[in-house]
Amino acid sequence: MRPDCFPLSGVGETLDERKTGKLFPIVEAQTKGAFAGISQADALKCTIAYEPVWAIGTGEVATPEQANEMHAFIRKQVAGMYDSDTAAAMRIQYGGSMKPDNAKALLALPDVDGGLIGGAALKADDFFGIVKPK
Hints:
Layout: H1 15-19, H2 23-34, H3 40-43, E1 47-50, H4 64-81, H5 84-89, E2 91-94, H6 100-107, H7 124-131
Parallel strand pairs: 1-2
């Protein structure tokens, strides 16, 4: 068993998996596989990053509805593996092209606990626009 898995990142579907309706089984398998053998106490030290593969570095981004739907789904998987308290406490971050123009909407979602900032962190103005949205 891994005693501490912070951060645990990287569940997400490809564009083809999303378009063919396989997104939920794919993310479910990834989530369950990532937590196989992880105790509840250690799971609480982890962060899950939902990173839709189709949105990484492409300029494409999940709509707030798509992001929250998947975050809620991941939280439901965690509840099934552990319990609802663990699921509520689990940090689930969005990592698919968060930018200044979408950060506020994404971070306001009930199941999005933060963001993994990629390319936008390379430009000070973009990064500042995320961490200090208007």
